[in-house]
Amino acid sequence: MRTSRIRTAALATVTAALALGLTACGGADADSKAAGSSAQVNSGGDAKGGTDQAAGDGTTAGAQQCRGDEMLLTAEHRFAGQQGDHLLVAASNKGSKPCWVTSYPTVKLGDVDSTALPHSKKDTSGGSKHITLQPGGKVYSAVNLFDYGSKNHTAQSFSLALRGADGHDGPSYSVAIKGDKPQFSWNEADVLNWNAKKPYDF
């Protein structure tokens, strides 16, 4: 009788131990699945975010920000004295490696205007993207000139600085105007974003 009770107690103990073990395994599996599910969501989210970011800036792998001393900067006065009067600005990558520009150049006209020109309110969106220039590649911007015929300023050159992704300016470089009418006048002026195509090229 006593032996039977001992065997029954031992069997109950083993059964309880097995039940606890199965519960623990089930719990571990559930936690593992939950953790795995969470990891997949996070991984997918991070990967997607990284892809979107990489696609959004449009940079070539390994490309650095363009430096002014490795760029050829030129400007041409177009439609002088007419509607659409502007300075077409071109920047060419004269370096041996790809580089990128972003936003719009910081431009100060002549010697009388110490304030950088604002970005044109009529410009297209997308100025925060990077445009990658391969060696020899070229991008364009434009300085829109508004001459109301009185109290205007006149100049034949301006200074230009490349803007970084953080919005800060690099060194300024003097840009002379080429063409038949290098002199330009303005009461107000603004600047367009860099673009792979010439603006106002009708």
Give the topology, please.
Elements: H1 2-57, E1 64-65, E2 71-78, E3 86-93, E4 99-102, E5 106-109, E6 130-133, E7 138-146, E8 153-155, E9 157-163, E10 169-178, E11 184-186, E12 188-191
Parallel strand pairs: 1-4, 2-10
Antiparallel strand pairs: 2-3, 3-7, 4-6, 5-9, 7-12, 8-11, 9-10
Total beta-strand segments: 12
Number of helices: 1
Q: What is the first-to-last residue Cα distance?
A: 109 Å
Overall 3D shape:
globular
Q: How do the strands of the widest beta sheet line up side by side?
A: 5-9-10-2-3-7-12
Structural class: alpha+beta
The description of the largest β-sheet is: 7 strands, mixed
State the order of secondary-structure elements, H for helix, E for strand. Answer: HEEEEEEEEEEEE
Percentage of residues in DSSP E strands: 25-35%
> Unreliable runs, pLDDT <50, ≥5 residues?
1-58
Helix content: 25-40%
Radius of gyration: 33 Å
Query: Mean of residue pLDDT?
Result: 76
